[in-house]
């Protein structure tokens, strides 16, 4: 029975504003419904302005952007790419598309992102085995900035180019500088669950004009300059349509207020869930000088207490209880080194993110949530933990 779906609280549903339809309407009126047109140019300019990076290429997905980004960094068959274990599979799949191998690195406990200590260990060990990692993928999970100074210093010391997967971190900042512009290539996602959405879409940003031109070329079937269809290398069909870019333009107008609201939701949860037993709102402190967009609010349940015979609540028990109240919650990303797909991939550490996965849960964090919705989540959590 679907009778209750009208009041289902989703984790992070799309939240449209007032102007998307204007841009889409204009695209249809003007017959610009192809993967070219003024909305694409406008959307790319909006992203450049928001991220403070000169070049942007709008693409069909964040995954496509990672795929092209790795090609731009020269990744090919037989190469190794450093990648956090604690992330969504889309971060690592494009490594495999290229016949390369992901080398997984554990998280640190403060930000949950790639651990600089483990990262150095991984680089030194790969070098000792005779293979220099071709690239490093940096992820800012749940919008929380990774430890950029330490990680970028390592990338520089060992001369490894960085691809910044900022799919979850649009609107997050380090020292007033927006995330996405710290690597040679940066990637955003406009999938339906992200802070802004085009229904499905992505973008690649860079300071390097030649890389941007190459990305645009590869995304349009690598068609050479010629009146006839001439091709010298393999290409892809990865350009965003002008219609979806219209949704993107309307969404980009809303970025500051969407970040503000996600941060308010996080602060509400932190304040109002403080008294609950066995549960803490996670990632409470942002690294000095940084600001998370608080894409999703996450909580951690206490580890089982050997002194106490009462069974510790599991995230799955809590999730199932919220489900009976028609509230969607989700486990944290399952670490990639624990995925059957990557069972054979090399890894450095893994215990930190495995523990987070065992104890964590993502709470509804959509920007259209009301204070009444927040109270509903709190009530259901209280019931689950009693
Ligand atoms: C969503 C996401 C992606 C992929 O983006 P799509 O637009 O869904 O292809 C990549 N990396 C991370 C960390 C993500 O959360």
Give an overview of the whole structure.
The protein has 386 residues and is α/β, with parallel strands linked by helices. The protein folds into two domains: 20-253, Type I PLP-dependent aspartate aminotransferase-like (Major domain) (Aspartate Aminotransferase, domain 2); 256-385, Alpha-Beta Complex (Aspartate Aminotransferase, domain 1), CATH 3.90.1150. It contains twelve helices and 15 strands. The protein has helices at residues 20-29, 38-51, 62-72, 93-97, 116-128, 148-157, 209-219, 242-252, 255-272, 315-324, 351-359, 371-385; strands at 55-59, 80-84, 101-105, 135-139, 162-165, 173-174, 177-178, 185-189, 202-206, 279-281, 290-291, 298-301, 330-331, 347-348, 360-362. An eight-stranded mixed beta sheet has the order 1-9-8-5-4-2-3-14, with helices on both faces. The radius of gyration is 21 Å and the shape is globular.
* Shape annotation: globular
What is the CATH superfamily of the largest domain?
A: Type I PLP-dependent aspartate aminotransferase-like (Major domain)
Give, in spatial order, the strands making up the sheet with the most strands.
Answer: 1-9-8-5-4-2-3-14
Q: Please identify the structural class as seen in this structure.
A: alpha/beta
How would you spell out the order of helices and strands?
A: HHEHEHEHEHEEEEEHHHEEEHEEHEH
């Amino acid at each position: 029975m679907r009778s209750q779906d009208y009041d289902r609280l989703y984790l992070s549903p799309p939240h449209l504003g007032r102007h998307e339809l204007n841009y889409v309407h204009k695209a249809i009126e003007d017959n610009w419904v192809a993967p070219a047109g003024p909305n694409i140019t406008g959307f790319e300019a909006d992203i450049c302005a928001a991220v403070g990076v000169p070049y942007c290429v709008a693409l069909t997905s964040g995954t496509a952007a990672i795929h092209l980004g790795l090609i731009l960094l020269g990744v090919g068959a037989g190469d190794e790419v450093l990648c956090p274990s604690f992330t969504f599979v889309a971060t690592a799949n494009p490594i495999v598309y290229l016949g390369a191998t992901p080398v997984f690195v554990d998280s640190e406990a403060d930000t949950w992102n790639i651990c600089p200590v483990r990262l150095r260990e991984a680089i030194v060990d790969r070098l000792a085995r005779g293979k220099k990692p071709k690239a490093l993928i940096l992820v800012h999970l749940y919008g929380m900035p990774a430890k950029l100074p330490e990680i970028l210093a390592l990338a520089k010391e060992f001369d490894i180019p960085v691809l910044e997967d900022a799919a979850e971190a649009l609107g997050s900042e380090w020292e007033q500088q927006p995330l996405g512009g710290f690597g040679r290539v940066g990637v955003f996602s406009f999938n339906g669950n992200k802070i802004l959405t085009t229904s499905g879409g992505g973008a690649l940003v860079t300071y390097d004009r030649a890389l941007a031109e190459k990305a645009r070329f590869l995304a349009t079937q690598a068609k050479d300059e010629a009146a006839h269809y001439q091709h010298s290398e393999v290409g892809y069909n990865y350009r965003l349509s002008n219609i979806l870019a219209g949704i993107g333009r309307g969404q980009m107008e809303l970025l500051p207020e969407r970040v503000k609201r996600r941060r308010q939701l996080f602060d509400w949860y932190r304040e109002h869930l403080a008294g609950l037993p066995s549960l803490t709102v996670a990632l409470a402190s942002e690294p000095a000088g940084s600001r998370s967009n608080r894409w999703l609010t996450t909580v951690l349940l206490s580890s089982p207490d050997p002194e106490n015979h009462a069974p510790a609540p599991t995230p799955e028990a809590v999730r199932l209880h919220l489900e009976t109240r028609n509230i969607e919650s989700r486990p944290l990303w399952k670490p990639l080194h624990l995925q059957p797909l990557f069972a054979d991939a090399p890894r450095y550490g893994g215990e930190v993110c495995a523990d987070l996965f065992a104890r964590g849960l993502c709470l509804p964090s959509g920007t259209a949530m009301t204070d009444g919705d927040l109270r509903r989540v709190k009530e259901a959590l209280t019931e689950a933990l009693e």
